[in-house]
Each structure stands twice: as structure tokens, then as C-alpha cells.
Amino acid sequence: MLYYFTACDKNARRHYDETVASPYKISELFDNLDSEVKETLIANNLNEYVHMWGAVSGSQNVKRWGRLRENDAVLVYTTEGFTYYAKILCKTHNSKVAEHIWGKNNEGKTWEYIYFLKDLKEVSIPKEVFSSFFGYKLNFTPQGFSNIDKEKLNIRMKRYANTDQMIEELNNEFILSEEDLEENNFQTSLEADFSKIPDDSPEIKKPRKQPRVMNGFKAWPRDPKISKIALKKAHFKCEIDQSHITFVSDASKEFYVESHHLIPMKFQNDFTTSIDTESNIVALCPLCHRKIHLARKKEKKELLKLLYDRRSDLLRDNVGIEISLDNLYSFYAIQ
């Protein structure tokens, strides 16, 4: 399991500075700990100073704390994003120790459901990168003490031997796409005169491009010209259902459709060949495009299977990209 806790308000940030960013001198409270925790701390040479955190009482907090096990992974979130990755060492329910360390909140509660951390590593993971990687909406904001959705985590873990490897890639290698950051602006940029856009030129296999900085993030770029070629080859018809008629665009003088990368651009790092290519770009009416991104899992799977059946051979034959349907589902954080 992969948990996270947040330290964003003034008091939580002070606690973060005192017991996470810096180890706390637990030796002064050692006699107040139960024997099993003492033994664990001593065995790990953490009986003098240790990193630690706690949760206040509450049904969800208590349930999650109860599920914590040694070596479970945890991310630490602040207003700067995710700043630390650690493992659970052990836990204890101890209001006396918690109150001595952190005091009480405005409701008179203390953070009595304590867990000790080991193997703390600094990371720098913006919440937008975290959200894109795990399949949350990009405006998702972590709250309180929680865990990554089990299904989303299982989908991602299929690619890694352990959570350490996954977090290493998330921290150092995973890059957002322009689609994540500026979808509306990109679709608007495609609204133009298509008369000079070729639709009969052969598709060329190309190496992936270098990411560029966009809105403060590294992102995989998309070439509007390639999307325009794909839309023209689709005859400006929705590839889910050609009967989905929208409206005639004033700029293109064609029925309005939007371009969508079937393999999302944020997974470009999984391929040495560029996935910003016509075979990977489908034309969709605005409704189907929103469904691909926002519909319930069952409906998403139906649409993705339809598009996969139509495009998988083209991807393989034209640009040498082979993926299974299950892999495609995983790119959308569904299984």
C-alpha cells in the first residue's frame, strides 16, 4: 500500500519541520513508549532521534492507521508538492506522547495515532505530476491522511518491481504532456484553414522529441500540424460514431472535431518512437472526447476497445508501436 499525509496549514507545517524534515529527539520520551516500539526503535538505531507523524482520532484516520504495516510506503505532501518518501517503521497509539510533541488542535484533540518513519528520502513531485501519473484529475489536491486509490495503485504497480522503483521514476523521469496542461488552447490552435494540409502523405516513424518547459513543468510537446493531418484523414468525422455531427467551424469550414492521442502523450517516455503521430491521433466529437477522459470506467473501456481495434494495426504497421488492450487500459488508470 502507498499512503500519503499532508502538512499544509501553519500548525501542520511546524510539526512537519520538527518531526519530519528533522528527526525528533524521542529518547526524552522513551520511557513513555510501549516495549514493542522501544525494541523496534533500538533494533533500527532510532532510539535517540526518529522521524515521525501522527493522526487525530476519526473513523477514517483510525481505520487507515490500523491498516499500516511495517515497510508500507508513504509520501509527504506540503504546499510545495510531495517532498519526502519514506517507509513505515512501526506505530503506536499514545496520546500522552503525541500531546507532549505536538500539543492539541483547536478541537482539543492530539495526533495520538502515531507512526514512525524510516528510510526517509527527499523527493520533488508536484501534485499535478502525481495526479497525472496515478490517473486523478489534474486539479486533485491531497487532503489529510489517506492512501492512493487501490485500483489506481495496482494498475501502476504492474510496471514496477516495488514502490521504490515506481517513486524513483515518478520523481525523476515521469513528464507531463501538453494535453495535461493546455488541452483547450491546443484544440483551439487546430482551428484553421485545412486546404493546404496534406492527407495523402505517408506516415513517417520518428524518434520521440525532447520535452520542453511549459507553465513551469517539463512536458512532452505535440505538433499541431500532425493533429491536423490526422483530423483531415478522418474526414472531420468522429471515429467513435460518424453520425455524431457537431457544427461547422468558422475557421476550417469543416465539421468541428477534436484530436485525441489514443496512447496519452504523458507516456511518451515508455516509447523510443514518437507517439505524436497520425496513427495514434483519433478524431472525436467533443462529447466522445470528454467521455474518454471523464466517463465511468465501463463506458471508457467500451470506447477505448473500439478505438484500439481500429488503430492497433496501424500503430504496429506504420510506426512500429505495439501495445495490448490491457496496456491501453492501464494508460487510462483502468483495468
Question: Which terms would index this structure?
Answer:
335 residues; single chain; ph1033 like fold; alpha+beta; 2 domains; 37% helix; seven-stranded mixed beta sheet; three-stranded mixed beta sheet
Please tell me about this protein's structure.
It is built from twelve helices and twelve strands. The protein is of the alpha+beta class. The protein folds into two domains: 2-172, ph1033 like fold; 176-331, no CATH class. A hairpin with a 2-residue loop joins β9 (212-214) and β10 (217-220). α10 packs across α11. The model has no long low-confidence stretch (mean pLDDT 93).
Strand order of the largest sheet: 2-3-6-5-4-1-7
Number of strands: 12
User: What is the second-level CATH architecture of the largest domain?
Assistant: Roll
CATH topology of the largest domain: ph1033 like fold
Overall pLDDT confidence:
93
Q: What is the total number of structural domains?
A: 2
Under the CATH scheme, which class of the largest domain?
Alpha Beta
Q: What's the SSE pattern?
A: EHEHEHEEHEHEHHEHEEHEEHHH
Query: How would you sum up the major sheet?
Result: 7 strands, mixed
Task: Quickly give the structural class.
Answer: alpha+beta
CA-based gyration radius: 25 Å
Distance between the termini: 18 Å
Low-confidence stretches: none
Percentage of helical residues?
Answer: 25-40%
What's the tally of helices? 12
